[in-house]
Amino acid sequence: MTWSPKLGAGLGLAALIVLFGLFGPLVTGDPATIRDIGLTPPGGEHLLGTTVTGQDILAQLAHATRGSLWIGLLVGVMATLLSGVFGIFGAYAGGAVDEVFSVFSNVMLVIPGLPLVIVIAGFVPPDQRGTGTISLVLALTGWAAAARVLRAQTLSLRNRDYVAAARVSGEKTWRVICVEILPNLLPILASQFVFAVVLAILSEAGLSFLGLGAANSSTLGTMLYYAQNGFALQREAWWWFVPPGLIIALFGGALALVNFSIDEIINPRLRDKARRRRDVVAVEAEVAPVEQDAVLTVRNLNVVYQATTPVHAVKDVSLTLRRGEILGLAGESGCGKTTLAYAINRLHRPPAEVTSGSVTFDDVDVLALGPEELREFRWVRLSMVFQGAMNSLNPVTPIRAQLQDVLRTHRPEMSAPDRELRCAEVLRLVGVDPARLGSHPHELSGGMRQRVMIAMALLLDPQVMIMDEPTTALDVLVQREILNEIKRLRDELRFAVVFITHDLPLLLELSDRIAVMRDGEVVEYATAEDMYLRPQHPYTRQLLASFPSLTGDAGALIT
Amino acid sequence: MTTLEVRGLTKTFHKIHAVDDVSFTLTAGRTVALVGESGSGKSTIARMIAQLVRPTSGEIALTGPDGEPVPRRRYRDNVQMIFQDPFASLNPFHTVEHHLARPLKLHGRPRTEVPHLLERVSLTADFAHRRPHELSGGQRQRVAIARALAPGAKVIIADEPVSMLDVSIRLGVLKLLARLQREENLAVLYITHDLATARHFSDEVLVMYRGRIVERGPSDDVLVRPQDPYTRRLAAAAPNPESRFSLGGQP
Q1: Is pLDDT larger for residue A475 or for residue A181?
Q2: CA B164 to centroid of chain Cα atoms
Q3: Residue B201's pLDDT is what?
Q4: For position A260, what pLDDT does the model report?
């Protein structure tokens, strides 16, 4: 668990109040003793003054805090248990049980809580309205929202492979729930519990203030009730109603802080306060000599993730992409190939930072472009097809609208019929029937969606296209079709491609030149033929050997 | 000799035949590869054999070394599964030891076997106290293999065991499986979409297309000289630099 100032402050404050509730009543004397010193202001013998009947406020506050905490704890435990039973068990059991449990918690959720509590509490005669009854009523009206959250989370967890694996090894259902699923729900349960406690203390205070609280109980709410009845406000006896109000507010605030910290543990994205730095960094003054016919030149590029321990993701990489060339970028996960592609396009986000080096596109220094020029540069001159791009189409609008959007943004002068023609044309280019323009993404297969993404990248006739694992999620037959399409388009349109993948044989077949990356460095940079016939670096050889040939000697691998 | 016989296995989801009348036999000491594209029904077969999914019809019969049918309650002692994604198949909350000790205990074996299990998958005993997030993908998959061996299983269903791993460690994990298969005389069903590894690591290949087996036979026959048009297309689609640089040089 990560210790944050928020968590520390929250826990510290809550602990102080709990200690006061636990030990305060032992040292402050009897809260009910009536003296003839009504409404004495704070100071002297009575640190927080007295009530209208001369009772010591500090003693009352200690007992009231204890009473409120006790109710909070009772309700927290009961509500968490109820939400756990209905949320977790229902979701794991599935089928009719889940259906019934889910409907029940939804019904409970739409019943307005506080009014119901007031009605129930008002209905039960005062002499039977004990702390237990009030807690039960509060728990019954407060568990449903938590149950829904737990159900959603359990539905996701029960489909995890480790749950299937536990079942395959023969674990019983209750053990799967308690040992495999429940621990992964702990942060959520903790957060729900804390929330239930705060809500219970607040609701109980509200009920007691209305005179509907537990009989003979002493809570912060009853203290406020008596202060109200004793006209504390009109008599300006602030010491009577401010302390209980303050304790409620502080305890609520403390637990809210704890809950924020739990949220950060559940959702690391909230924790990641990426330092927003200037996007553009010092670019080396001297521009390296540009290779003949080069369209994109990367020189000594370094990209660092500025985390607590900085990660040097791209180390001194130099590459040249010629017009009409397919450059393969090969490497395994974490080698920096995607970071490199993002940096070339200036799409990297903090904490990633280009620390040195240059990216030159024709004569343009990409790292020095302003925001407006950058927008013009991306997509118009250099477009990108992302990994899993086929899933990044907007599911609720047809293909036509998504293609036309690009044209509308970058070619505002284009007329509507021209836009339609251009969209149909690029779809034809990638082998998709233009009749599909009216289709929604879910009506297309994965391979077709990926073709649409490539069509979108082609819309503005870019000179360079960066493709990051464009076929990894596709089946081999579809991959083959798309590879053929890329080769044909390159020959027809003469654009250059940076093709990023872990699949070295694919690159050997497709690319003109290949760069092999490992740990942020380019370890070998050669033509496809050289790399295939005469691989130099041991890592290249290892990668090549990792792909057994379909037609080679059988059994050679088994040793 | 332990054998698992699958007869007329069918699974229908909402009137769609995910698996349609599939029959094959897994025998101790042999690896059968089940190849096909996504959605062809391979994983559904794995999940039916692992008793995670109930077949619509057909039967799965397990015969023990004595030639007698294995009783139902002993089924999971004998048949275990290795999942595709080692990042999802280990519980992030628990240590490696938990993942191995539980199946050992459930199948009546002492938890002192844990170091021995780790050793069999080429991991050291100190891995027992680590949690999944401290392991690399390859190490996780080795733990998953050890978990499948823990009950003393004789039939292993490996569902795409290396497709989520980095390319440079895939062969290592496959070689480990092949070695265990020989040493323990296991019957292995190797499910994959990669024809090349299917050829090198199996004795027999079944090619699946839309829930049916369209071609079957010894690996070399099926994958080097495919007869079925679908298998041919599949074999031709795999990236093949050899055809581009047919200068005779070997990499």
Answers
A1: A181
A2: 14
A3: 92
A4: 83
Residues A68-102: tens digit of each pLDDT: 999 999 999 999 999 999 999 888 888 888 999 99
The residue in chain A having the minimum alpha-carbon distance to the alpha carbon of residue B164 is A333
Of A533, A550, A557, the CB nearest to B238: A550
Mean pLDDT within B189-199: 92
Q: Is residue A26 less than 8 Å (CB to CB) from chain B? A: no
A165–chain B Cβ distance below 8 A for any pair: yes
Is there a contact between A167 and B89 (Cβ–Cβ < 8 Å)?
no
Helix axes A182-209, A131-142, angle to 10 degrees: 120
Partner B contacted by A417 (CB < 8 A)? no
Sheet holding B31-35, edge to edge: B79-82, B155-159, B187-192, B31-35, B204-209, B212-218
| Facing B175 at nearest CB: one of A477, A529, A558 | A558
Model confidence, pTM: 0.81
Angle at which helix A57-84 crosses helix A144-158, to 10 degrees, equals 40
3-state secondary structure B22-38: EEEEEECCCEEEEECCC
Q: Do A162 and B91 touch (CB under 8 A)?
A: yes
Q: A-chain residues within 8 Å CB-CB of B241?
A: 505, 508-509, 528, 532
Q: What would the two tokens of residue A548 be?
A: 């057994």
Q: Do B107 and A170 make contact, defined as CB atoms within 8 angstroms?
A: yes
At residue A125, the 3 state secondary structure works out as coil
Residues of B in contact with A544 (CB under 8 A): 251
d(CA A367, CA A282): 9
pLDDT, mean of residues A238-248: 89
Evaluate whether A552 touches A558 at the Cβ level (below 8 Å).
no
Q: Are A492 and A503 in contact (CB under 8 A)?
A: no
Of B103, B167, B199, the CB nearest to A554: B199
Q: Does A504 touch chain B (CB under 8 A)?
A: yes
Rounded to the nearest 10 degrees, what angle do helices A538-545 and B167-184 cross at?
A: 50
pLDDT on residue A345: 85
Hey, what are A161's tokens?
């492979």
Token pair 């002993």 is found at: B74
Strand order in the sheet with A352-361: A311-322, A294-305, A352-361, A364-365
> Mind telling me how many Å the CA of A179 is from chain B's nearest CA?
9
Residue pair B187/B154 in contact by the 8 Å Cβ criterion:
yes
pLDDT digits (tens, 9 = 90+) for A438-487: 888 888 877 788 888 888 888 888 888 899 888 877 788 888 888 888 88
Which tokens is A184 given?
């992964």
Q: Which helix (H) or strand (E) holds B198?
A: helix B195-201
Beta strand pairing call for A326-330 and A496-501: parallel
Q: Say whether B102 and A166 touch across the interface (CB within 8 A).
A: yes
Complete domains list, chain B, with CATH? 3-236 (3.40.50.300)
Closest CA to B77 of A172, A176, A169: A169
CA distance B77 to B192: 24
Q: Is the ipTM of this complex over 0.90?
A: no
CA distances from A393 to A390, A420, A459, B9, B116 (A): 6, 19, 15, 38, 50
Chain A CB contacts of B224 under 8 Å are 550-551
In this prediction, residues A293-316 reach a mean pLDDT of 87
Q: Which chain B residues are Cβ-neighbours of A506 within 8 angstroms?
A: 239
CB pair distance less than 8 Å for A167 and B52: yes
Residue A244 near residue A172, CB atoms below 8 Å: no
Complete domains list, chain A, with CATH:
5-30+42-271 (1.10.3720.10), 280-378+497-547 (3.40.50.300)
pLDDT of residue A12: 93
